[in-house]
Amino acid sequence: MADIRLCAFDQVPDGGALGFEATLRGQATALIAVRRGTQVWVYRNRCPHFSIPLNYQPGLFSTYQTRLLMCAHHGAMFRFEDGHCIDGPCEGASLDSVPVYEQDGVLWLAEVHNAPEQVHP
Fold first, then answer.
1. Which of 34, 67, 74, 82 has the fewest CB atoms lying closer than 10 Å?
2. Which tens digit of pLDDT belongs to each residue from 4-43?
3. Which strands make up the sheet holding 27-36, listed edge to edge?
4. What DSSP letter does each residue of 4-38 carry, written as one string?
5. What is the SS3 assignment for 46?
């Protein structure tokens, strides 16, 4: 199984977020990419508080000072770099990370056991 192309790296706004959908372990899975400068992190788009999406409108995510991703439903705040919740009802919990890398201006989902079969930005 080959790595999966997500998007052009610069499609993820610096200091912001971009949503994707992928098939992980045979199930459609919402993903979110967050970016700060030359670094991008990807997580499952699921708040650990109630296992609901972090956004309440498709494609619209709340970020704060290019450092934090906010759950639109309960205000939980997650650090970009590790998905750790630093404030809100799930403080101390973390988002589920997904391995990615950038190559030649393209963001790729790394091939791993049970890697995604399809990705739809």
1. 82
2. 788 899 999 999 999 988 776 677 889 999 999 999 999 9
3. 97-98, 39-44, 27-36, 17-24, 119-120
4. EEEEEGGGS-TTSEEEEEEEETTEEEEEEEEEETT
5. coil
